[in-house]
User: What shape does this take?
Amino acid sequence: MHKKNFLLFLVFALLFVFFLLTAFYSEGSHGGGDDFHHWRIAKFSWQYPYLFLDLWGKPLYNLLSSPFAQFGMMGSRVFNILAGLTTGFFAMKICRRLKISLAPLVVLMICFTPVYFVLLLTGMTEILFSLVLIFALWLFFGEKYILSALVLSFLPFARNEGFILFPLFVAAYILVRKPKAIPFLVTGFLAVTLAGYFHYKNWLWVFHANPYGKNQLYGSGEWFHFIKHLPHDIGYPLLVLFCIGLIRYLILLRHPDRSNLVRFILLPGTFAVFLAAHSYVWWKGTGGSLGLTRVIASVSPVAAIISLEGLELLLSYVKLLKHKLLILLPVILLILWMPFNIYHIPVPASDSQKTIRRAVEWMKKNGLDKRKFYYYDPWFVVYLRLNPFDASSCREKVPDYNYPEKATLPGELVLWDAHYGSNEGKLTLEKLMNSKYFRPLKAFYPPRPFKVLNNYNYEVWIFERVDSASQTVSFQLPYTENLDDFCESFENLREIEFPGLTSEKAFDGKISLFVSSESEFSYTWEKTFSETGWKQGMKLQLSACLLPADFINGEQMPLLVFSIEHKGKVYHYCSSSGFFSAGKNAWLKTIIHTEIPKVISGKDVVKFYFWNRHRKSFYMDNLCYGEEE
Assistant: This one.
């Protein structure tokens, strides 16, 4: 083996081992729940062949990744690592073909583009899209025009937006006087349509089965949203070099020839059109876009080629080799460092994953993991190691979100989360709370409160379907899981100091506190931080009981609030409006889980109270807190 080839092979081998180990030690994923969905479709396509045609999963990805997916989600990650390294290999060959110096460096530029780096550790489709695109470009620049059109025709079946790049290639085929390649751009569509016809019995199934376009929950945003995030997704070193590379193209276009024009269309043009298309879709709120900037990884290898051209232009103004090395080495180190500067590597489990893992552990501890359940976040199925297509053990979403009791049986569970449950699932927490057919068993909160899509506080609830006629239940709530360190039950307070104390109602003991509809805030438990004895990082469970004196629907419930403030400015705030039966008469209970942050001063004020935002009358009792076990 030639020495240069051996060194190149060694670099690729080391990169593979590095990304393999990083993926193995990454508990989390920057693909979120989508990562699992792609894996499960590819994994179970061998058992349910119709899944090969799944347009959400992407037929090309389903087919090519399915052998790897049989080995679990790690198998899908290995597929992406191999696909990403292959992308780098063909990008290097493109650079050599276009006579760009330092061609092997483009491999590092691609793999260490921050957004590309973290998606190599997932089973997401952006990596395969980039491979198909770069392979088609390599064939084009190698003057294999028909083959390039054949490969490119499958791009929309790696990711749907692939078709937006077709006009650029059509223009390029015309400029190089090879229009006969253009008809081959429909090859992929015809092949997938034919394959699907035998299942759907419909020649237009690709259009009818389109999972996008009708979903209106995602919303819209600023037109420059994706541009604004380029420093984060591409990284400043590569972005600066990319801009220098664009300047080079603009200089060349002052005296354009056919080859420069084709090169401009297929390299900067591809990146610009892809970026513009996603910016427009997000701005207009069409196409089911969430504004996720990770999609830029689909074309970031093209940006890496342009960045290498920018570096080449920069180095062309430096004459001495040692001066070039003084520029080159820091640039390489900065590129290698950027993913670690922007992301936590290996990728840790997200707070939502940690919350779901706690919920699953609780289910196993209480023997609920054998029950059939309806889930929204796919990580439930991952941690319970179940077949998501086995309807006897689990099912994604309740059949009817308007009437969740329909087609669900007593004893079955609903595993609700604020992100997928309220948004994709369209099942609100209030609907389950107010239903006589469902009983809340347990609520779980993240270590640090955070908001999800549509401004919901993230939380996870486990509900049991019950028979409303008999009110029979098959599971008793474990109320003693967390012991309270303190509980204000209002028994030893004087009414002159605390107006509203009453013996009419009480949850525990003989006294509770009445909050009238005229009061915006209830009694507030208040201390300085130093008086609490708490420490940074301590995990607390705070709870309170409430008995409505007025009719209160789910959206009008008071908000239990916990806050820490410094000189009147709140810097830690969490709340809960989700109530469940406290196990005594009509009393309800709500819980907050939180972690004590870094405190500015021991004199900072800690507050714990009800915010009566809708001015309802109610009784409150047992304002408690305790350190979580």
Notes: The chain has three domains: 15-342, 351-465, 486-627. The mean pLDDT is 90. The first strand starts at residue 373 and ends at 375.
